[in-house]
């Protein structure tokens, strides 16, 4: 039988998830929208590659090569999500404090 998770275990998990979400950047919005196109081009150039790290690095390099104008819509999405995240995190933390009392 598994032991029930304590509140501290739950808080550790929540804080790890919070840190992950905090670092979502505009690249994370760009790549999913361009995934199929990128995947096709990458496979043509690197047919024998099986490394996820190499694919990720190539995606990051492609992102870095974009102009500021090309990045602008994704930067705007990231800023919007970041503000929503901050608001949700604040509400979540307030609820956690109320539950602890």
TrEMBL record:
It is found in: Nucleus. GO terms for cellular component: nucleus. InterPro entries: HMG_box_dom (IPR009071), HMG_box_dom_sf (IPR036910), HMGB_plant (IPR031061). Residues 26-93 bind DNA. The keyword DNA-binding applies. Residues 26-93 form the HMG box domain. SUPFAM superfamilies: HMG-box. One of its GO terms (molecular function) is DNA binding. Keywords: DNA-binding, Nucleus. PANTHER family: DNA-BINDING PROTEIN MNB1B, HIGH MOBILITY GROUP B PROTEIN 4-RELATED. This is HMG box domain-containing protein.
């Amino acid at each position: 039988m598994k032991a029930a998770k304590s509140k501290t275990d739950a808080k550790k998990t929540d804080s790890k998830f919070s840190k992950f979400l905090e670092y979502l950047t505009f690249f994370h919005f760009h790549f999913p929208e361009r995934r199929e196109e990128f995947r096709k081009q990458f496979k043509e150039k690197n047919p024998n590659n099986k490394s996820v790290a190499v694919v990720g690095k190539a995606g990051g390099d492609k992102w870095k090569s974009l102009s500021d104008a090309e990045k602008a819509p994704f930067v705007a999405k990231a800023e919007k999500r970041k503000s929503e995240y901050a608001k949700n995190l604040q509400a979540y933390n307030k609820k956690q404090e109320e539950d602890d009392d």
